[in-house]
Description:
Layout: E1 13-19, H1 27-34, E2 38-43, E3 58-62, H2 64-71, H3 73-78, H4 87-93, E4 98-102, E5 106-108, H5 119-128, E6 163-172, H6 178-183, E7 196-198, E8 211-215, H7 216-219, E9 228-230, E10 237-239, H8 244-259, E11 262-272, H9 278-301, H10 311-326, H11 332-351
Parallel strand pairs: 1-2, 1-4, 2-3, 6-11
Antiparallel strand pairs: 4-8, 5-11, 6-8, 7-11, 9-10
Helix pairs in contact: 8-10, 10-11
Amino acid sequence: MGLPKVEALPEEVDIVISAIRTDLSFLEAWRPIFQRYHLIIVQDVELNSDPQVPLGFDYDLYAHQDRVRILGPELASSLRFTGHACRCFGFLVSKKKYIFSIDDDCVPAKDSDGNLVNVLEQHITNLKQPATPFYFNTLYDPFREGADFVRGYPFSLREGVPTAISHGLWLNVSDYDSPTRILKPGDRNNNFVDAVLTVPRASLFPMSGINIAFDKEIIGKAMFFGLVKLTGGNPFFSRYDNLDDIWAGLCCKIICDHLGYGVKTGLPYVWRKDTGSPMLSLQRENKGVHLLEHIIPFFQSLRLPHTVVLVEDCYLYIASQVKVRLSSVDPFFQQLATSMEMWIQAWKAVSS
C-alpha cells in the first residue's frame, strides 16, 4: 500500500510567517527549501517597524493597515491579530489549497543520515495521502513508502479518509510547559523518530503551531488561534501564552472527528533553537495552565449535532457551547466565543 512522496507544487502551497520581530534573517536558513514558494508575512499589530526580509524571496507583507483595508475597521479592530497568532490573517488571505506555517525560532533539521529534511515535501505528502483515524495501524502510516496495513486491519477501512492537518515535530528544545522546563532544564529532544501517525478518532492532542501544515479547503475555517484576552483598559489583545494554538487544535480535532477527516503527527522535523527563560514564561502561562483543566473536559464531552455538516457551522456551534458552558468559569470565554464568530465573519468577508 505504500505510496511514494509527492512534490510540493508552488502553485498549491503558501508559506505563512508571523513577523513578531523586525529581524527575519532566520529565513536565510530556509532558502534552499522556500526559494520556489510564495510567502505570506503577517506583521504583528504591536510591531512598529517594518520587518526586514532577506532579498530574493517572493512574498507579500501584510501590516495592520492592510487588515483594516481588507476586513474593514470593525472586524480588523475586533480581531487584533497579535503575537504568533497574527499568522491567522495569512490563513485568511491565502488563495492556495495548502498552507505551511513555521515559527521564527526554527531552522531546517537533518535526518538520521545527516540529510537536510525537506519539510514542505513531507507535509504535503502527509496531506495528500489518506489518514486512518478509525482503526490504529501498529506499523504507523500504512501509506508511507515501504509500509502497509498489518494483519487484522479491516479491508473496508483501508481506503482511509482525507487528511486535514499535518502536525510536524522538532528537535532540540522539547515542547514542555514552563513548570516542566524549570524541573528539567537540561532536557533536549534528540530522537529523530522516522514515523508518521494518524491521531485516532475521539483522541484529543495538544497541537502546536510551530511546524504545521493544513488543507485550507478542508479545515481552514477552524484554524483560528483565538485564545487571547483583553488587558484591563488596553485596546490591544495579549495572548494566554502557549494556549492559542492548542485551542485551535482542539476545535479542529473535534470537527475532523465529526466530519470524517484525519490528523497526522510526526514527520517532518525542524530544529528549534533555545527559547527564553521558563521563569518569565511561567508568569505569563499561569492562568492558561489552570484554564486547561476546564477546557479539556469541555472538549472531551462536546458532541456536535449530526445535522451540522459544514466546518463553519461546526465552529459556530462550538462557539455557542463555549458561551453556555465555559462563561461561568471565566468571563473571558464569552469574549472568546464572540471572537470565534467574528473569525467566521472575516472568512466570509475575504471570500466574498
